[in-house]
């Protein structure tokens, strides 16, 4: 299979700007770029699904550039329904540092910042050198602009297209960057850059967009209860990643394996066959979790996530360390423990039970475990030396209800 055929099979090509691009992709040797604006100091899984194209094309002999938008991030790409909140220059600078470090660690490619070639362009030069090449009717016809016409669009947002076109033009001149790749929502901005290069340099540049990765209802991949899955392990733990991936809907899992892993066609087809024959084994989900977590974090982090998941499923958390407690129960707010306490007082003060009577009933029924050990003694005293690493108390009430105490 050629590079282009592989990308097609994986469902990673929605549109290309010219049929000539097919041979160029298959033959290697192109410099290309993909960009992101620094709206946060970490990328999320949505970026990952797009940025994987860098690794795929690099394996095929192309040279990737990862653009962090220090200039465009100050303006904000037009959203379909409303203007993005502006962020300060200080926030942008902080986010750029985080994104640059992360991009080099996960993807390992050269990072460029469009602030470097935008900061010294004055408004008159910008309008003369770039604005004069864009017809207003041409800009109004772009989908991301057209969708905002009813609710209104600011001039700053409207000008974003020119800034991104200027990026492509600059990278073409300075880096011989002939291709821009992005998610499908960037098609209008990409084609604007292609037009600018053609008009100013009389040269051919190319664009390729991928469909956005979504669930079966069209929601963006990686959105969980309104929160993004961050690639930074300090923001989203490997365990949280594992739980999200292992619980993805069955109908989409093979598509995700194609789009989000480097497993071959033969490997994915073998997984699909086994998954169809034994869906209860969740081999496809586990393969997806393994590939993604090992790529963005590490094999060690993946093994840690599996260990935590299996321990919570069985109720056996005796081997947990403090870090694993924090990963497993990061969504819980710990209750404070300042001194040694009788188990009944601890359960009431920590909100595990509503009264001492209820606490006694749970203990007598064998429904309370402390750090994986069942507690049946009403006189049991919880002390610091009984905590995990002298810090955490993991209380389980019944089969699935967990509470975390932190010894201060």
Q: Structural class from helices and strands? A: alpha/beta
Q: How many structural domains are formed by the residues?
A: 3
- Count of β-strands: 15
Main beta sheet strand tally, sense and closure? 6 strands, mixed
The CATH class assignment of the largest domain is: Alpha Beta
Low-confidence stretches: none
Q: Determine the fraction of residues in helical runs and give it as a percent range.
A: 40-55%
If you average the pLDDT, what whole number results? 90
Radius of gyration from CA coordinates: 26 Å
Distance from first to last alpha carbon = 60 Å
Strand order of the largest sheet: 1-6-5-2-3-4
Characterization of the model:
With 408 residues, the protein is an alpha/beta fold. It has three domains: 3-210, HUPs (Rossmann fold, 3-Layer(aba) Sandwich); 237-314, Tyrosyl-Transfer RNA Synthetase, CATH 1.10.240; 335-407, RNA-binding S4 domain (Structural Genomics Hypothetical 15.5 Kd Protein In mrcA-pckA Intergenic Region, Chain A), CATH 3.10.290. Helix content is 46%, strand content 14%. It has helices spanning 3-9, 20-27, 45-59, 89-106, 115-118, 123-129, 136-140, 143-146, 155-158, 160-175, 187-201, 238-246, 253-260, 265-277, 283-296, 299-314, 322-328, 343-349, 356-364; strands spanning 15-16, 31-36, 63-68, 110-113, 177-183, 206-210, 223-224, 227-228, 335-337, 341-342, 368-370, 373-374, 381-382, 392-397, 401-407. It has a six-stranded mixed sheet with strand order 1-6-5-2-3-4, sandwiched between helices. Strands 9-15-14-11-12 form a five-stranded mixed sheet, with no helix packed on it. Helix 12 (238-246) packs across helix 16. The longest helix is centred in the first third of the chain and has 18 residues, at 89-106. The protein is elongated. The N and C termini lie far apart (60 Å). The model has no long low-confidence stretch (mean pLDDT 90).
């Amino acid at each position: 299979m050629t590079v282009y055929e592989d990308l097609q099979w994986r469902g990673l090509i929605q549109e290309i700007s010219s049929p000539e691009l097919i041979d160029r992709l298959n033959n290697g040797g192109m410099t290309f770029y993909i960009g992101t604006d620094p709206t946060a100091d970490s990328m999320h899984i949505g970026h990952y699904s797009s940025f994987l194209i860098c690794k795929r094309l690099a394996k095929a002999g192309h040279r990737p550039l990862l653009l962090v938008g220090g200039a465009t991030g100050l303006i904000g790409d037009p959203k379909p329904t409303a203007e993005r909140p502006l962020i300060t220059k200080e926030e942008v600078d902080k986010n750029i540092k985080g994104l640059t470090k992360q991009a080099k660690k996960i993807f390992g490619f050269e990072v460029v910042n469009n602030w470097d070639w935008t900061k010294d362009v004055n408004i008159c030069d910008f309008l003369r050198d770039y604005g004069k090449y864009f017809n207003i009717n041409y800009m109004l016809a772009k989908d991301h602009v057209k969708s905002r016409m009813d609710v209104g669009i600011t001039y700053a947002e409207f000008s974003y297209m020119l800034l991104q076109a200027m990026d492509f033009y600059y990278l073409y001149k300075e880096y011989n960057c002939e291709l821009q790749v992005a998610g499908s929502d960037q098609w209008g901005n990409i084609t604007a850059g292609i037009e600018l290069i053609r008009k100013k340099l009389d040269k051919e540049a190319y664009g390729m967009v991928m469909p956005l990765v979504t669930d079966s209802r069209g929601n963006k991949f990686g959105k969980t209860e309104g929160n993004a899955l961050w690639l930074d392990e300090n923001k989203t733990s490997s365990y949280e990643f594992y739980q999200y991936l292992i619980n993805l809907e069955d109908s989409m899992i093979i598509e995700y394996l194609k789009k989000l892993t480097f497993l071959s066609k033969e490997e994915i087809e073998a997984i699909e066959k086994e998954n169809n024959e034994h869906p209860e084994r969740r081999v496809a989900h586990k393969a997806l979790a393994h590939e993604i977590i090992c790529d963005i974090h590490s094999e060690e982090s993946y093994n840690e996530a599996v260990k935590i998941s299996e321990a919570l499923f069985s109720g056996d958390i005796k081997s947990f360390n403090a870090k694993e407690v924090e990963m497993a129960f990061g969504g819980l707010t710990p209750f404070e423990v300042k001194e040694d306490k009788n188990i009944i007082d601890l359960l009431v003060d920590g909100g595990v039970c509503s009264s001492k009577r209820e606490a006694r009933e749970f203990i007598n029924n064998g429904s309370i475990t402390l750090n994986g050990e069942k507690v049946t003694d009403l006189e049991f005293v919880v002390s610091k030396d009984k905590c995990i690493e002298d810090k955490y108390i993991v209380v389980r009430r019944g089969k699935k209800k967990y509470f975390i105490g932190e010894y201060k």
